[in-house]
């Protein structure tokens, strides 16, 4: 509803000046700043470390609770999520997807003095399936595997090599491209510079991406057909997946470019 807009200030990602101005004018009435440092629903466009450090300092100065949405980055980009990756700690953070490896579970965590407010007579927290033992058991096992194996290093390495392969194919066709985010959840943009906020995605031409993704889907490469979704790598992806993905990426690109040339 429009009325919600009265309670929220939107500031573009990576614009520290705009954030500073907002905090200076409204910091006394702002309860929390919510940010997803790698935009998992906008092509993995990423906050710079400098921006996150600036946001952390402004939140401290204005006594604003800093919340990181780590639903997509948590237990994926590093064992300690985006906070470990970027070296900036939030006051509260949310987790879900990777921690349950497909099982329905989410969690939030934070500084002790905030978490201790959640108690009978304090802040209420509950839900029909909260703390359900089946997803909890799945999450416990998943976290054990992430802790004790090199799964996260492997998906990052796989993503890096896949992007290198895709970059070679795109460069051979003379197509401008950049990758965003972390290689375990990388975004692909057909731009000549790295996008830095959501507006850059909204203003970009993603027709080539959309056509390419649909072609890949038809060939059995199940990247998201929505250009806002990064390419999430799974620890189950192996070298045969890599070869198949790159071969089909090249074929699909040729088909789409031919089709576009015929239409033009
Ligand atoms: C980054 C991010 N945050 C939050 C959510 C919402 O999570 P939930 O469906 O548990 O409310 C999603 C859902 O996909 C998400 O991608």
Written overview of the protein:
- By secondary structure, this protein is an alpha/beta fold.
- The chain has two domains: 2-148, Type I PLP-dependent aspartate aminotransferase-like (Major domain) (Aspartate Aminotransferase, domain 2); 151-263, Alpha-Beta Complex (Aspartate Aminotransferase, domain 1).
- It has helices spanning 16-26, 49-61, 81-86, 97-100, 112-115, 133-148, 151-172, 198-203, 207-218, 239-263, and strands at residues 32-35, 38-39, 45-46, 65-69, 92-95, 107-110, 178-182, 185-189, 231-232.
- The strands form three sheets. It has a four-stranded mixed beta sheet. Strands 7-8-9 form a three-stranded antiparallel beta sheet, covered by helices on one side. It has a two-stranded antiparallel ribbon with strand order 2-3.
- Helix 1 packs parallel to helix 2, helix 7 packs parallel to helix 10 and helix 9 (207-218) packs across helix 10.
- The protein is globular.
- The model has no long low-confidence stretch (mean pLDDT 96).
- Bound molecules: pyridoxal-5'-phosphate.
- Pyridoxal-5'-phosphate (PLP) is lined by residues 36, 40-41, 69, 71-72, 96, 106.
What helical percentage do the residues reach?
40-55%
| Gap between N and C termini | 42 Å
| General form | globular
Whole-number mean pLDDT = 96
- Name the helix and strand elements from N-terminus to C-terminus, one letter apiece: HEEEHEHEHEHHHEEHHEH
Which molecules are bound in this entry?
Answer: pyridoxal-5'-phosphate
Main sheet: strand order: 1-4-5-6
Strand content: 5-15%
Largest sheet geometry:
4 strands, mixed
**CATH domain class of the largest domain:** Alpha Beta
* Number of DSSP E strands: 9
- Which homologous superfamily in CATH is the superfamily of the largest domain? Type I PLP-dependent aspartate aminotransferase-like (Major domain)
- In the predicted model, the low-confidence regions spanning at least 5 consecutive residues are none
């Amino acid at each position: 509803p429009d009325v919600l807009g009265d309670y929220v200030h939107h500031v573009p990602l990576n614009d520290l000046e705009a954030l500073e101005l907002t905090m200076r004018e409204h910091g006394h009435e702002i309860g929390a700043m919510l940010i997803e440092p790698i935009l998992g629903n906008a092509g993995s466009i990423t906050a710079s470390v400098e921006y996150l450090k600036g946001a952390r300092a402004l939140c401290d100065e204005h006594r604003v609770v800093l919340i990181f949405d780590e639903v997509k980055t948590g237990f994926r980009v590093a064992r300690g999520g985006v906070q470990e990756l970027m070296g900036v700690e939030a006051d509260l953070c949310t987790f879900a997807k990777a921690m349950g490896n497909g099982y329905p579970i989410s969690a939030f965590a934070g500084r002790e003095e905030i978490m201790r407010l959640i108690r009978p007579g304090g802040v209420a927290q509950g839900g029909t399936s909260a703390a359900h033992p089946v997803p909890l058991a799945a999450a416990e096992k998943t976290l054990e595997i992430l802790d004790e194996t090199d799964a996260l290093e492997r998906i990052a390495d796989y993503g890096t090599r896949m992007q290198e392969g895709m970059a070679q194919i795109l460069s051979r066709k003379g197509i401008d491209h950049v990758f965003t985010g972390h290689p375990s959840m990388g975004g692909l943009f057909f731009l000549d510079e790295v996008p830095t906020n959501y507006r850059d995605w909204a203003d970009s031409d993603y027709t080539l991406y959309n056509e390419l993704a649909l072609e890949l889907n038809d060939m059995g490469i199940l990247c998201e057909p929505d250009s806002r979704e990064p390419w999430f790598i799974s620890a189950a992806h192996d070298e045969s997946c890599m070869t198949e993905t790159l071969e089909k990426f090249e074929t699909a690109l040729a088909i789409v470019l031919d089709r576009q040339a015929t239409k033009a």
